[in-house]
Amino acid sequence: MKSKKRIILAYSGGLDTSIILKWLQKNYNAEVVCYTADIGQKIDHKKIISNAKKFGVKSIIINNLKDVFVKDYIFPMIRGHAIYEGVYLLGTSIARPLIAKDQIKVAKKYKAYAVSHGATGKGNDQVRFELGYHYFGPKIKIIAPWRIWKLRSRSDLINYAKKHKIPIPKDKKGAPPFSVDDNLFHTSTEGKILENPKNSAPEFIFQRTVSPEKAPNKSTSVTISFKNGDPIRVNGKKLRPSKLLEKLNQLAGKNGIGRVDLVENRFLGIKSRGVYETPGGTLLIHAHRAMETVTLDRETMHKKENVMSRYAELIYNGYWYSKERFKLQKIMDLKKNKVNGSVKLKLYKGNITIQSRVTNSTAYSMKKVSFEENKSFNKSNVERFINFHKKKLRN
């Protein structure tokens, strides 16, 4: 007997992907394999497995990708100081390429003819997933339910769930819920009251940071040590990538650091309002930039600065695997082997203050910069320097 074709579904175990699972089973003559990437989000393994089994799913894959996520995706992005539109640290954007890559890997292992995701038809994630799918599995079919099915609203989803006896979480009855995405790097919250930009974000939506007002009245100091451009230690203790980020999340979160409320320009042309929490990532960006100031020369730093905006835009738009992003990553990693040392930060009620930068690098010269008279800098050359640049004013 010929076996059924297979579809690999990116599955969280929640309402939306459970509905998609049922819908795929009803509309495609194929076995659905449930795939979950553990990248540090709040995850209930037992719930994912039990929910999938209720639908008769035989194959349920949960892959732990936390260290890969931090080491091979977040750390390169931190080296590039990627911030979209001056505010967003790209927590959701950077996760999708990894999920897509691993999902295609699973699809090939199971000889699946198609992959499916639960990204909505208005959002950026459908683009990010599908560009990743195309890069690693161009011949594998993509099923995007939100662009195909007749369900058009949260009410339609609720009614579909009731009809097929799919459990509905209490907070998802009635009005549409907040849309929440989380991973080890960040948490994003969108929808409901947040859709109107005049409304303040309610405090209860924040999941990993306390409000600055309720943060400790005493500051916290943290030292982050770098080797070849990547963080390796926190307060002198060497930690593997995922544990290092977890530690920084905890330290920053309790001090009210990492909150952002923004209206962003989506790739598809829609403006959307969201609230993001990236506590540990915020510390890493500050510390890494501080480390580079005392280890890299001006030309290298400015070359990076000139392409940072484009680099961030590529990640936001889903072009992590593009030739252009690879090219820009090489610029971001110029002389990263020189970025060694430690930065001490003071955390206090939502604020970050750089307390010290320690390195063996000679890029920063105390002798040259000193206000005390010294012979290490020839000031007689300055007049020639100025005269040269005066001529360029009219060129």
Tell me the total number of β-strands: 14
Give the overall silhouette: elongated
**Proportion of residues in extended strands:** 15-25%
Biggest sheet overview: 5 strands, parallel
Q: Determine the CATH topology of the domain at 5-65 and 95-174.
A: Rossmann fold
Topology order in helix (H) and strand (E) letters: EHEHEHHEHEHEEEEEHEEHHHEEHH
Number of helices: 12
CATH architecture of the domain at 5-65 and 95-174: 3-Layer(aba) Sandwich
Radius of gyration: 24 Å
Average pLDDT reading:
93
Beginning-to-end CA distance, first to last residue: 79 Å
Helix content: 25-40%
Q: Which regions have little confidence, pLDDT < 50, spanning 5+ residues?
A: none
Looking at CATH, the homologous superfamily of the domain at 5-65 and 95-174 is HUPs
Q: Strands of the largest sheet, in order across it?
A: 3-2-1-4-5
